[in-house]
Design a protein that fits this description.
Number of helices: 12
Helix content: 25-40%
CATH architecture of the largest domain: 3-Layer(aba) Sandwich
Shape: globular
Strand content: 15-25%
Number of domains: 2
CATH topology of the largest domain: Aldehyde Dehydrogenase, Chain A, domain 1
Mean pLDDT: 96
Structural class: alpha/beta
């Protein structure tokens, strides 16, 4: 199985996924292996939603739709053009996954398999329904993948490299446990937005997608705003109002009520609109249903500040702030060459150790 075979297999998986999107699930007769997998995947989507209350059907379908858009033959081929695949020695790569949003570890599995390695997957118990079926579909398209994909919930043994994602606490354990293996170890990160006060209503509405998609649980979700001094939040609150039905979802509502009670008892000043609270705070990681904010007086000083905390920040959402900014509404739509924590996993996987 050469590189082109692997690309074609993942592109076929992408075609399968086009049947599942934000408008619902629509079977296309021309998609191969649908008799085996279409209804089965609908069942797994339902199981994922039942298993994890944070995995709403809308959010699961959003994640699937994103991957269906990315997994085209041309997209994958263009992504890999800059890499040298010659003389790479096959290895077994352990992938330890987070479970904060649906299919959050799929990019790592894709990267391992597309570079010609085998993958040993340790899924999170919060997100273990969807990926096995997608891997089974991939193996039906290209049977040579069958010997290259393994799932486990046990202690990891017999592997050559590792990609592990977790909290700052688990990262310390990973660093010790995998000290003798080539490793990519990811820690806690959050995303921020820098507002100038001149944003259009469309931009602020797009920002609400960055804030509320997946209930804000992803590292690419905006958890903090930087706003000019004396910023008027009225336009912001108006632009995000379409997300107000979230307050009728019990887990989100419970977090909103709990955090609001804590803030009021602690006599913190907050701004709120009935489904989101804004709290002035220097931290980057805000609780569910809360968005932290700070004010700034100088863009240059703010850039210096954010550079200081570069290892805590996944994305900076802005318009005209710096060269690495993400457009409003695009944080949860990363391209194939967008790597978590800025670490190029394909480059890591192609280097012989």
């Amino acid at each position: 199985m050469d590189l082109d075979d692997r690309i074609k297999a993942f592109a076929q998986l992408g075609e399968f996924l086009t049947q599942f999107n934000s408008t619902g699930c629509h079977k296309l007769e021309e998609v191969p292996f649908n008799d085996l997998f279409f209804d089965a995947f609908i069942e797994q989507i339902q199981k994922a939603e039942n298993h994890n209350a944070w995995f709403s059907k809308a959010n699961i379908l959003h994640a699937i739709e994103h991957w269906s858009n990315q997994l085209t033959y041309n997209n994958i081929k263009d992504w890999l053009l800059k890499y040298n695949f010659k003389n790479t020695q096959p290895a077994k790569v352990a992938v330890i996954m987070a479970g904060n949003i649906p299919l959050v570890g799929f990019h790592d599995v894709l990267s391992v398999l597309i570079t010609g390695h085998s993958v040993l997957i340790k899924p999170s118990s919060n997100d273990e329904q969807l990926l096995p079926l997608l891997c089974n579909y991939l193996c039906s398209v290209e049977p040579q993948f069958k010997d290259r994909i393994e799932f486990t919930q046990d202690r990891l043994v017999d592997f050559d490299r590792v990609i592990a994602t977790g909290s700052d606490n688990t990262a310390r354990y990973f660093e010790y446990y995998f000290k003798d293996k080539p490793a990519v170890i990811r820690k806690n990160r959050n995303s921020v937005a820098v507002l100038s006060g001149n944003e259009t209503e469309e931009q602020l509405t797009a920002l609400s997608e960055d804030i509320f998609r997946y209930y804000g649980l992803g590292c690419r979700n905006v958890s903090k705003l930087y706003v000019p001094e004396n910023y008027d939040f009225d336009s912001f609150f108006k632009a995000i109002y379409d997300w107000h039905p979230l307050i009728h979802e019990h887990k989100y509502a419970n977090n909103y009520d709990y955090n609001k009670a804590v803030y009021l008892m602690s006599e913190f000043d907050i701004l709120e609109n009935g489904f989101l609270m804004l709290k002035k705070d220097e931290a980057f990681s805000s609780p569910i249903a809360t968005l932290f904010y700070e004010t700034y007086s100088s863009k240059s000083q703010l850039k210096t500040h954010l550079d200081t905390f570069e290892d805590k920040i996944q994305c900076v959402v802005a318009d005209g702030f710096d060269d690495h900014e993400v457009k409003f509404g695009h944080t949860q739509r990363p391209a194939l060459d967008t790597y978590a924590d800025g670490v190029d996993t394909v480059d890591f996987l192609l280097k012989n150790s």
